Amino acid sequence: MNDSRYARFGSGRSVLRVEDDKLLKGEGSFADDVSAPGQVHLVLLRSPHPHARIAGVDVAAAKAMPGVVAVVTGPDLVRAGVKPLASSTDFKRADGSPSASPPRQALAAETVRFVGEAVAAVVAETLEQARDAAEAIEVAYEPLPAVVDPAAALAPGAPTVWPPAIGNVACEMRHGDAAAAAAAFRKAAHVVSLDLVNQRVAPSPIEPRAVVASYDPASGRITIRASSQMPTGLRDALCAEVLGIATDKVRVLVGDVGGGFGMKTGLYPEDVVAAYCARTIGRPVKWCAERIEEFLAATHGRDVTSKAELALDESGRVVALRIDSLANLGAYATPAGVVIQLMIGPWVSTSIYDIRTIDIRIRGVLTHTGPTAAYRGAGRPEAIYIIERLMDAAARRMGLDPSELRRRNMIRADQMPYKNAMQKTYDSGAFESIMDQALSLADWSGFEARRAESATRGRLRGRGLATFLEWTGADVFDERVTVEVSGDGFIEIFSATQAMGQGIATSYAQLAVDVFGVPIEKIRIVQGDTDRGTGFGSAGSRSLFVGGSAVRVAAQRTVERGRELAAAGLEVAAGDLEYSDGVFSVVGTDRSVGLFELAKAQPRAHFTVDSTSSVADATWPNGCHVCEVEIDFETGAVEPVAYASVNDVGKVVNPAIVVGQLEGGALQGLGQALCERVVYEADSGQALTASFLDYALPRASSTPRFRTAMDESIPCRNNELGIKGVGELGTIGATPAAVNAVIDALARAGAEKSALGLQMPLTSERVWRALRGA
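Above: the chain sequence. Below: its structure as tokens.
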């Protein structure tokens, strides 16, 4: 409502986040902040072996220790009828047989398949007592051979993770036309080929996972307080798939969430054990992960090895793309881990380029490592990294500016809507315009002067470009929102999407202000209670464009319901009323009634509207990111020194929040490019990066000077707000932009051949060796 006196709090403005006041005062309520009367503490004993048969578990000593309430093993859960967690069943193997993955028990009953897999659980009065008792459990392991590398897992005679997954391939998928691609490659004037690794990374939210489970024997209900992005999904998976109980027997509550990044989207073994123990013992059970448990047992991201090829004609137009990838699923094929790599990544494999012929093969491989699942971007960063590395390699091969080769292959604005080779339709986009704006923002033409200045300080300078898009929405396009207007002067809006630090409550409140025309402090956003409402939750950058659209629709329907009530009270036709700034007025008179006054007059001093609405399809945010780096020749240390990006995210509700998402995401992408990597030792299967002493995250000191712009002139056509998802865009663009910049610097220094063989993360040692041709 641009003419509203409250418009300064509405969409399009950088309103201060409504969430922050309590957080800055230390008044947040995270899962570990919650304690229940009479609660006991849960500690899990984890396998030190990557692969072993469990010959026996002796819990007698642990049960006899002070304060111990219960000790639970895998066989105990099996006998109690607790079923395995869900595994992927939507894909097949190459021969048409079903996907094959071992059943994952919440506590391993017969075999452990990765270091850190839970084997037994201790519940005790105090956390210290539970830890002491867990150490007293004696597990007789019979070690078995293990394999942690996906390529090694395919080799003849490799250790087997699960016999039905012959050759350790759980599932496989092929996209495109292999014969047409082969023909295009035979006729191509230029072919570039790269072996690329999207290494395994650990999501590392600032708040570890935590759960408090309580049981009410009178109602037979379990209440779970958890740190989760998807409360409804957690509830449904626990009920239907594991405990075999009705969904109304479990309530999931989520308060503040200290980051998710995709890691907190699913049901974990610890959730199952806590719920089982609470129901069995009859007391609240609390578990909070230690950081080492997050590194070992929370899901990881990425871990895809690819042979990628691009075929081009004489003019530099791409005629075919061919990719053969191994996706390391870990020891268990999670539904998310499989669909992300076998389906979602390929959806964006051709990105913003008009590439009609593709041949993409992805094999999901089982290894004796922790399972993989969602991590910020989920499949799209892997796919975009591949095509952007290929584009740079092709430009270098043809002697073209990287931007020029991309320009020759971009989908034109007049081709919209555009159906790509994976049959996904882009509704809008002006990719060349976005790139031109980014090149200007980055001062692309002035690079040589900056490179010369860096050289005077003994530093090598390189620049990297990434032009790209992503898919958002998680393919779930409907959302339910409940609005309650109260006579005490507040509007409460409940959504099943979930705040996790991204500022979604502020954006929702701004959208509500647009419609209701009331001060933003009169809007209360409520989330995280499956008794209040259910829905898909927050993943795939869907919260604002699906959830926000639903808030807008629900608010409009609430105003219309208020109009009906006001018309009845004022004894006029609804069409005779106009609404502005929280007041219904009879046109041409001085008669009116305020929204909250109207609510107070209702039988319970409020009125409620329960609204479900949908958006038409996914959104396709896109951008052009330019990174410049300096390299210390003596040490190989890489420093990102400049970062410019122009981003098409459609209409922007809160510019400050969106810029924060873009730049925070970019820093995570730089982390993968330069420093992050989960490492398992090949011989022992041990995780060598199970703490922040060994796993390097990007720091404030490694943050470049960001220049971030947004183009709002190309709204999404698939939702009424014109919004495109933004939460993952920065991460997707930063990784290839930074790696391309490092390779550019090395190539300019005469180390192009060794640079092309570099794999992420581009640590100082790796870059130093590349500079010296080692």
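DSSP finds 21 helices and 28 strands in the chain.
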